[in-house]
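Exercise 7. Predict the joint structure of the components listed below.
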Amino acid sequence: MDASLQTETVLGMQGIGKRFGQVWVLKNVDVRVRRGSIHAIVGHNGAGKSTLMKIALGAVKPTEGEVRVAGRELTYSRPAEARTLGLGMVMQERSLIRTLSGLDNLYLNAERKSALGLVDVRKQRTEIAGLLEELAIPRSLLSTMTSDMSTIEQELIEIARALRLGSQVLILDEPTAPLGRDEITRLFGVLRMIAARGAGIVIITHHLAEVFAVSDAVTCLREGQVVLQAPTNETNMASLISAMLGNRPWQGSHLPAHGGKRVDVRSTAPQKSEPSLKVLNLKVGTKLADVSFEAFRGEVLGVVGLAGSGRTTLLRTLFGDLRQGGGEIQFQDKRYRPKSTQDAMEQGVFLIPEDRGVHGLMLAKSIAENITIVILRRLSGLMGLLNFSKARAQAQRMMKALDIRATGADQTVIELSGGNQQKVVLAKALTLSPDLVLLDEPTFGVDIGATHEIIAKVRAMADEGATILWASSDLLEVTHVADRIIVLRDGVVGATIGPEQADKFTEDALVAMMQRQQFEETGAAEAEHVGG
Amino acid sequence: MSVAKTDDLNPSEPRGSRLWLRARRWAGAVAWGAYRGDNPGILVGAMIVLIAIFAYLLRDTGFMSSINLLSIVRVSTTITIMSIAIVFVLCAGEIDLSIAAIVPVSALITALMLSWNYNFLLAALTGVVFGAGVGFLNGLAVVFFKIPSFVVTLGSMGIMQGLAQIVTNASTVSIANDPFFFWFGGGSVGPIPILAFWSLGGLIIGSVILSRTAIGRRVLATGANAAAARFSGIRTGRVKVGVLMASGAAGGLAGVLYDGQYAAANFTIGANDLLSVISAAIIGGAALEGGKGTVLGAVVASLLVGTLNNALVLIGFGAPQQVMVQGVIIVAAVVVSSRPGRRTRWRWLVALEEAEHERDARKA
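Solution:
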């Protein structure tokens, strides 16, 4: 590496390889972030992005390769090493303490002390003032309680904290996820300013539109290897998408193919051609602005969208857990406006929630107790006494039908694997046999074998006449399980893909449709910035 | 280990050996539950050991006489009844600190009604309904304002304590009503005091509701994971109001039972009961974080506390020492029940269970 390059590169990662056990999660990764530039890192879940950033941060020691921050090599001798070399990071999860003020958070565990050993607030204020001015952060935030700040204000405080510690390199992990459109524009303005000061910025993101809006260079990782690395203005969305996805094979080819079935649901069966669920102009909070779609008996309707696009909000509203702000829902030719989850269940709707540990299961209770909780009224007999043998029989029938592997119906659910836990949640739905089944990330953290079993069961429920909404971030899976797909984007249904558009049932097409559309104009301004 | 031999599973096997297998599995499950703190097996054992120790230490004082043992049950009745209700509250993931403060108000109301010559059943019922009403208001505050029951009931505890002194200007109301005394106090059937039947009734009704009915399941589900319960169609708000009403009513009933024992009511009745009641529920296996608890455990624990107090008196200690001992054992009980337990079942028990499941499957 020659000297002139070295002064330019503020974060250099060369030949990075990382092995966990027998598996190489990173192989021969080179990333060079130049002073004054913004470098975007994209890749699928599990592509190795976060491991790479942990290595840059000094938290994980690479098996091979070296990391240089501002020309000095990391030795991985202590955790704070990268920080002292001038590297700051803003994590995906907010790390501010909500009950402290902005200033207290900025100086948390690094308080400036006065001669008496008390916290010297004045000194802290004068010290941070310059930085705040540069970032255009209003000084009033210093005395504002974090819980009273907007998300962008919290984000700015986090960035200020990261910069206070290390001003050479700033790493941001999914910084835009909780932000609205205007806030993202503001954040990008701040990032450009920081870069202009001479820092190097690394931004990890799922939103490809943002890559083109803000970054100067982009690195795409897939399965631990760099598959695309280029200045941003020399690449485009399509090549980035195909680099990111590669050619992932679907491992469930033995499942019934849906090509023929998709057509079947709507056209060749006339009695099914009337939609069972009609959603018109649905508005919920700030997430869903104007959502309209239809779903049919016997079909699996895929619901896709980027994180934060309102998939979960939509399903929870249909289940009566969130109040609809406007619009109209019709279910089985009747106006449907559930007042509560109980109300929804009585009308034949059931939700398999996103986080099974939080909303789906009583982890400390047995399989039988978890399954039969939805049919307590049916199990109550004489004088309200529960019919235990009936309950046990139902639990055992479900364990057999879904092949739940456990020592018995009395085993507590927390002891089961993720796949088997999810099957217990599915067993609740099967036990209830609702007309409308809402599934939110039904295969998250579930192994491939259990995934296939869950898909087969859900398809079987559809074949028996249920209407299914399947929301998932695993797009490949959605293309295989769904008859039609709706794409949520910016609070509306951005696209509906029907069986006649077989070419759209691909990951690439869905990813492209999911992207936010609003950065197209700023992209032009960006080219100027790169030039300058 | 192959406890379950294959010939155990032969469908033509004699009925005796099948029952033997089932009995072993049941005993194993109870032992496992006791080991994990799911049932009061350990508590029963502790009680037996404790009584044996006292029986030896206090062999000259008549501790083991049936009169003394029955009096332990009798004196413990109010604590027993209240701790049964508190088990429901804890199982639903809530707490009721006002329960013992309801006691003197309800006792005074009942005593006043008796002094005005109302029917003794109506007087007793009024005391209980008053308690239920306070619990109802507690529940409404918890559900509608979404504030922790700890705070709500701490507040109503203060209100009740003040109210108890205001009702009669802190003066004592005496009672003279023989049928009332028989049914709610000193009566007995043969040698067995009426109050023991109240405890027994509370034990049976409470444990059947908690472990055998849909209501009990809803209570446990609400405490185990309120979000999951809501997503399973359980009206968790109703459950919370319900358990707090039950505990209020139990406080009211306890007040009535104190009236029957003391033949008089004043504002100090039940003043020291809160610690005993919550101790009994927790020693009996109810978890403060909700979702777990048994009525039998609470009843055994309340008798255990009663036995300890009785023995301490016989040894020559007074109320201060009783309260201190209770304080020690409540902490000890929580330490014991929250130790990091093993999750995997004993292998021999798993083998027995598998044998039985296989037989069930073959039958079906």
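Discussion. Confidence is low (pLDDT under 50) at residues 1-6, 253-260, 263-271, 520-532 of chain A.
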